[in-house]
Amino acid sequence: MRERREASTSAGRTLRRRVARHVGLLIGVFALVLFGAAQAAAETAARGGSTPNLQTVTPAEGCPGDIVTITATGFSTGARPELQWSDRKAIEEQFGHLASSGLTEMQNDFGLPATNSTEDKAVVPLFFQVWEGPTGTHKNGSGTVVAATNEKASGAPVAFTFKNLYSCFGTGGGGGGEKGPTGAKGETGEKGEKGEKGEKGEKGVTGATGPTGPTGPAGANGSNGKEGTASGSNGTNGSNGAKGATGATGPTGATGTNGTNGTNGSNGTNGTNGSNGANGVTGATGPTGPTGPAGTNGTNGSNGATGPTGTGGGSETGTATNFGLYTGAGSTGGLATGKQESGGWSATLRAVPGSEQGQTQGVASFPIPLKTKEKVKLNYRNEAEALTATAPCVGSVSEPVINPVGNFCAYRGGKGAGSKETGSGVGNVDKNVTSKPFFEGFAGEKIEETGLAGEGDDGILIVFRTSEFSTGAPVEGILAESNLNAAGSWAVAAK
Q: Architecture of domain 11-169 in CATH?
């Protein structure tokens, strides 16, 4: 009964304390609001100086009573600038638009006396930012602070966050506040009196059998038995032992003497005679001998002997002919098999930013066309590659050589300061163009070898383009400058 009375009394005291704390918090909040309003009214007479233009508030959030630093232009040294603080958005989210909005949603206050023209300090005013209560989420209010003149905002506002009052001052008794710290340990009580001797307990159960003890020491040796008289039978022969490991290789023996020479083989049969060579070209008639001195008329003399056969005359004809029919059935003209012809090429391209995409081509026109539909592979060597003499382009820019035949090579030169491909501080270099050109026939068909429908029989186009290029709708305003001034040589060798 006594315990129930004490519990009831304790619960009552706890409830009264909680109610008192909650009411105290609300009274304190309201008192702070009234005090802030009274203070703002009292400070009206103390304001002075020009209206500043606020820039920043540090920190950008705070509780009522916190001091923040405001930077601005136009503070009057020694004067307390008028400030207008607003938590209107958050207050209306909590309570709707209140009749006392001039006090609950927006407050005019004054900063501390300014010490210079660019910085001042101010005290954060109190707003009813209590959403969502002591046990819910403590939501802050997103508000502003702005310079004011006669309680009217002047200039651009600066964002400021009004912290939830429960985050600032705690939840009080209404929400069953947080557990307080553990109290100090009480003093040790006095030692109690010695109790009476207890009755004798019953006999306990028998314990389990203990583990087996260690083995005792060995006994002494017994005396020797008498010697036997009968001989034992022979034991059986043991099995053969395992094969031993192979011994190391012995040293190499001395070199034997040379054998006698074998007899010579019989001579092979004679080979068949080769076919007769082609007849040589008949030499020119020898010169007429000098006229003999006039003599007496006599009988006619006999004919003179035939002169020796003449030498000279070409051994090969028509090696690089451009005569005859080049196209169609029965065509025979074209660059002779295994023969080479060569020449030079050049290409220039210039496009400024904002202009349309561009293309240019170097022309390698063959003085002697290739044989009709002859397949020749097309190769390109840039400025660096042209110096390596890599097959099939084994020559140089100045002396192009094709090996093996059946190839075309275009070499890029690079000795001129106005036609460099790459480099720095060496003159003009390529800018924003294709690093490797492609080939076309004279009809504009892109090809990698000649012969298809006659493309490339008469020559090759070496094609360069701006880096920004479209084969559909053209790029009408390129972004980067493009520049190319290329020159070199070419060579082709027929199969």
A: Sandwich (2.60)
